[in-house]
Amino acid sequence: MSTSPQEKIANLTKELNHHSYLYYQENKSEISDFEFDQKLKQLEELEAAYPEFKLEDSPTHRVGGTITKNFNTVYHKSRMLSLGNTYSKDDLIEFDKRVMKGLGTEDYEYFCELKFDGVAISLLYEQGVLSQAVTRGDGEKGDEVTSNVKTIRTIPLRLNGDYPETFEVRGEVFMPKKVFKALNEERAKNGEALLANPRNTASGTLKMQDSSVVASRKLDCYLYSLLGDAITTSTHEESIHLLERMNFNVSPTYARCKSLEEVFEYINTWEQKRHELPVETDGIVIKVNSTAHQEELGFTAKTPRWAISYKYKSEAAETRLNNITYQVGRTGAITPVAELEPVLLAGTTVKRASLHNANEIERLDIRIGDYVFVEKGGEIIPKITGVNHDRRAADSKETIYQNSCPECGTPLVRKEGEANHYCPNADGCPPQVMGRVEHFISRNAMDIAHLGPKTIEGLFQTGKISGIADLYSLTFEDLNGLKFEDKDELTGEVKIRSIKDKSAQNIVESLEASKQIPFESVLFGLGIRYVGRTVAEKLAEHFKTIDNLRNASMEEVIAVHEIGERIAESVVNFFSIPENIELIERLKAAGLQMRMEETQTPEYQTQIFQGKTVVVSGVFESFEREELKKLIKSLGGKVSSSISGSTDFLIAGANMGPAKLEKAQNLGTQILSEKEFSEMINQ
């Protein structure tokens, strides 16, 4: 008996979710990664052919792909309050006295949890399915980020077993330390500014417009609070165990403490042990365990009276600055680096710290030979916070910022208003040339698999390539058996590496496949300064072809929505350099995509929105948000992201923010439902 597409989709969804749970929650595997990927690919193809049968808990949500230009504002059913903070155990004693006085008894206990350094999130489940995810925001209301949260693999999309009909779970979205480290290593190779800490990075990632990029960031989440009318637990501990039984990702680092002395023991236990965890922590959350006691103690205007946060002091150390070296990124940006006498800090040995730019060196008045204060705290990247001037040698000399490139000797330049110095020798400076090739082949650009930084270095070393365009001249014979030196940066040990026949074939096939990568990715891959992925997409959509962009004036580039003068100047400068024009012509000849594929939109005999400004908000049944915006533009309208006095129409979908709706009503903006919009354009 044949199975219908709907049944196939349902069966594959259930099966893949089962394997994902085993892998991410139980650390088990019943099938190989290859089998999982093949089944996931089959599901993606079925959902593309029968989108009406795609389920809310489909594992394809995990890989992202949804584009969200505007995040709806959602009001929390219960306020997401912040906690009072303290660094003092004396303050905890005072807190305990207030609890005792408020309850009129000594018969109470505490529940302690680590305070994870991330972004507070609220998850709403209805009928066992994740229906909405909202950031904390200002505590009263936050941004709906459901599509992005669905990419977090440890958050269940559908629950099994017993669960309340409707309930809310709260927790902390975070970026694991190893993911953050790898992300910064990639940014360093690409000559991009390093990200400051995992918390800010997690926060920025949650608000990204492209959920597929969010998925690539590998966020995680710990849950620690359960709310709902049907929740009948009598203690916070019972709620935590209920979350665990429903297979939510709960950190096993909690403890019930019968007295303040046990709370202090918990604090002391985790002060150093917390550094072994995969996530950054900055303290302890202490809660009165009984929910009846919590209700009795109540709240102040901003914080609960039954909970407090104890924060660990930022770990600091003093060590000697042995030298200042300078690194060159792929864009030519120069980054000064403090070479330190090794010192143990927050569980790791710190040898280096970024000094960012000349302004920071001047602000710190830092000199070689100084003893400096280094902090890590909640930040993975060590930071120099000051200089111990009392230990400064009498003959110390003021630091003079390097004026020539450390790699090629070219005099450095610094544009007015910018903090960084740059090496202008883009085509002759080895780190820049190799960095641009590494950026070009990266996943968000040309996505050329089987080519890594070491192989790229080997291809340069052996003279097989001298730039991006040479990649497309490589043959199997060029690569098969190629030997090159690989020097370990830490030990200086040199090993000989070689490319085997299978690897050579994979590289050639990946290069050939990259010729089908869309124009916006090619444009991003060119590595034009200030042109990130989003800017590349805007430019590609506006100009349609590389030749149109190449011939555009600065004024024409600035005319593109959200493109500023700095970006426009960089784009025009890029196309004024003969070597860059030669590169583009060679890539054209190799067969790369140099024009935007036109998407098909329905043909209408009306320009009903001619000269009108339209705002689109909410979720729609018959349209993707971007599809709807393109349709409005094809009907003569201008799409705006915010309501103002000049807005003519608001097309209101489901779950749109009440604030935006109220503003439209107050301004007298004409509001159209999805049905009314469809009827209008089909008349």
Kindly describe this structure.
It catalyses: NAD(+) + (deoxyribonucleotide)n-3'-hydroxyl + 5'-phospho-(deoxyribonucleotide)m = (deoxyribonucleotide)n+m + AMP + beta-nicotinamide D-nucleotide. NAD(+) binds at residues 33-37, 82-83, 113, 136, 172, 287, 311. Keywords: DNA damage, DNA repair, DNA replication, Ligase, Magnesium, Manganese, Metal-binding, NAD, Zinc. GO terms for molecular function: DNA ligase (NAD+) activity. InterPro entries: BRCT_dom, BRCT_dom_sf, DisA/LigA_HHH, DNA_ligase, DNA_ligase_AS, DNA_ligase_CS, DNAligase_adenylation, DNAligase_N. The protein is an alpha+beta fold and 683 residues long. It has six domains: 5-63, Helix Hairpins, CATH 1.10.287; 85-311, 2-Layer Sandwich (D-amino Acid Aminotransferase, Chain A, domain 1), CATH 3.30.470; 316-424, Beta Barrel (OB fold (Dihydrolipoamide Acetyltransferase, E2P)); 430-516, DNA polymerase, domain 1 (Orthogonal Bundle), CATH 1.10.150; 519-590, 5' to 3' exonuclease, C-terminal subdomain (DNA polymerase, domain 1, Orthogonal Bundle); 613-682, 3-Layer(aba) Sandwich (Rossmann fold), CATH 3.40.50.10190. Helices cover 35% and strands 19% of the residues. It is built from 24 helices and 22 strands. The protein has a five-stranded mixed beta sheet with strand order 2-11-10-3-9. It has a five-stranded antiparallel beta sheet with strand order 14-13-12-15-16, with no helix packed on it. The radius of gyration is 28 Å and the shape is globular. The two termini are 45 Å apart.
